[in-house]
Structures are given as structure tokens and as C-alpha cells.
Amino acid sequence: MIEETLTLQAAVVASRRLIPYAAVASSILFAVAPLHDIRRIRQSRNTLSLPFLPFFLYVVQSMMFLLYALATSNALLMFTTSLGSILGTFYVWSYYKHMNDKTSARKWFLGGGGLLFMLGVIATAFDAQDAALWIGIPGNAVMVMTAVSPLAKASHIVRTQDASSLPVGMSVMNAVAGGFWTIYGVLLDDILVTFPNAVSTIVGLIQVHAANLDAYESNT
């Protein structure tokens, strides 16, 4: 009985140590997940009815948390968010290049650029603790927006019974990465980590389910 208890405790300790690394690994996978959809866009020279906002909000989210990582001197977060910022910029540029009407995208660029500029000033002017708070809260809000943004096409999906407008790679990684980061947030007892990632997990699962239903109906 004592040996079983010690084994269980060792497993719990090991899990606590592994979860942060799993969360970081899932963030890296999230960063490369949209490559398939972007490759399709570039090959067809068309946006394929995929929504703009998931790609745009992802790069804004990555840049915001890069500022957060710089403010808090978090090397691991700097790596994952730098990767997300670079790849996210490539995704947005590829999408924007093939848009027919670029007006709404330009408005989002203006708003996102203004927000990032303001947070950049905060990151340099405030001490680390205050900067982390002022960047972290809007960063979490953008994270939730990123997770739910594919559902902007929900009415189209319901009307046409076609889920091809969902960015499936991002939806899958919303569920996977969100799950790991939710567990990590619980371990940290940090609601600012737990809540937005729990939302991402739930919304990601809904999107994956919709895509699977569409694939099943297409094959029957």
C-alpha cells in the first residue's frame, strides 16, 4: 500500500513537471497548424471562404504574449511567441495577398497595430509585474477571440451544411493546446491562464466535431 502511494505521488510529481513542456510543445504545433490551409490558399490564389480573423488574431495574440514574455523575462515563452509571430505574419500576408476586398483587413491592421504599439509602451514604461498584468488581461481576451473567430462562419456552415470554411488545423490545436494550457493553469492556480484556454478547448472541440460531421456526411 505504501509503495503504491509513493508510486502515485511520483507520477503526480512527474506529471506536474511534464505539463509545462507539453504546453510549450503544443504551442509550437499550434504555430505550424495553419500551414496546410495557407498552402491551399497560395496554390488556389483564393481565400477558399476561410475566415480572415483566426489568422489575424493569432498573430496579434502571439505578438502580445511576446511583449509579455519580454516584460517577464520568460525565455520559453519568448521562443514560442517569436515563432508564432513570424509564422503568423506569413499567414496573414499570404491570406491578405489573395483577398478580393482588402478594406476590412486594413481596418483590423490599423486597430491591431495601435493596440500593439500601446502595449509596447506599457512593456517598456512599467515595471515587470504591472506590465505583465496590463498585457496579460487584453492578451487573454484576444486569445478567446482567436478561439471563437472561426465561428464567424457558423451561419454559412449551418446554411450550406459545409464545414470546409473552418481552418481545421487551428481548430484541432485550439482543442489540444488549450487542453494542456488549461491543465497547466489549474496547476498554477491561475485563472488568467485557465479560463481562456478552457474556452479555447471547448470551442476547438466544437469546431473539430463540426468538421468531422461534414467529412462523414461527404463520404456517405
Automatic annotation (TrEMBL):
Q: Which UniProt keywords apply?
A: Cell membrane, Membrane, Repeat, Sugar transport, Transmembrane, Transmembrane helix, Transport
For this UniProt entry, what is the primary localization, expressed as one broad class?
A: membrane
- Transmembrane intervals: 18-36, 48-70, 76-96, 108-126, 132-152, 164-187
- Membrane topology qualifier: Multi-pass membrane protein
Q: Where in the cell is it found?
A: Cell membrane
Family recorded in the similarity comment: Belongs to the SWEET sugar transporter family.
Species name: Aphanomyces euteiches
Report the InterPro entries cross-referenced here.
SWEET, SWEET_rpt
Q: Does the keyword Cell division apply?
A: no
Molecular function per GO: sugar transmembrane transporter activity
Gene Ontology cellular-component annotations: plasma membrane
**Protein name per the record:** Sugar transporter SWEET1
